[in-house]
Amino acid sequence: MILETLVVGPLEVNCYLISEGPGYDALVIDPGDDGGTILERIRANRLTLKYILNTHGHFDHVGANRTLKEATGAKILIHEKDAPLLAMAGEHARSFGLMADPSPPADLFLKQQDRIEVGGLSLQVLATPGHSDGGVCLLMDKILFSGDTLFAGSIGRTDLPGGSFRRIMISIQEVVLPLDPSILIYPGHGPHTTIGKEKRTNPFLLELCKGFI
């Protein structure tokens, strides 16, 4: 299996390239920038990109959608509640003093418990609003792609439009923490971790975790 982490853009987003292996169909999660670099890895592995999955619609996670879509024809997938943010990526980036291409519109909307299949791989959609209205995590076997819901030692910020501290904590408590502690967390920013480690050490979760440890 191919599972590459590409750190892209000025906000250092973790973009994930996933496939059964060289020459197979592939998907990419959160191509936030550096579309040329992502395309190089796709071509180097002789992959056919089928899906562009956005865990949410903030500019730093969707900035290379247009480049990949135009080069490969892959379908853009995002939760319906974050779909309006795709066209606003440039405006959102400028508020941070940065630049980003607005994304083409979504081809399909992600919904709770959807399964995204590529080759023999399957990712389950878990709705986790809080960082944004339409934030999702993606569960693939023993890996949770957590977007900006949960990080190593932290959680996603909730002070942007559509954010809610209460909702992100409910999402983590009801959706993430009941999962197997051995599951690896591949977050939208920063290093990998595990659900078990975050239960034990994440200062935002220690009170929540008392019911699950």
* Number of helical segments with 4 or more residues: 7
Class by SSE composition: alpha/beta
Helix content: 10-25%
Distance between the termini: 32 Å
Largest sheet descriptor: 6 strands, mixed
How many β-strand stretches?
Answer: 14
N-to-C series of helices and strands = EEEHEHHEHEEEEEEEHEEHH
How does the overall form come out from the CA principal axes?
globular
Which ranges are low-confidence, i.e. pLDDT below 50, for 5 or more consecutive residues?
Answer: none
Q: Average pLDDT, to the nearest integer?
A: 95
Q: From the alpha-carbon coordinates, what is the Rg to the nearest angstrom?
A: 16 Å
Strands ordered across the widest β-sheet: 1-2-3-4-5-6
Sheet-strand content, in percent, reads 25-35%
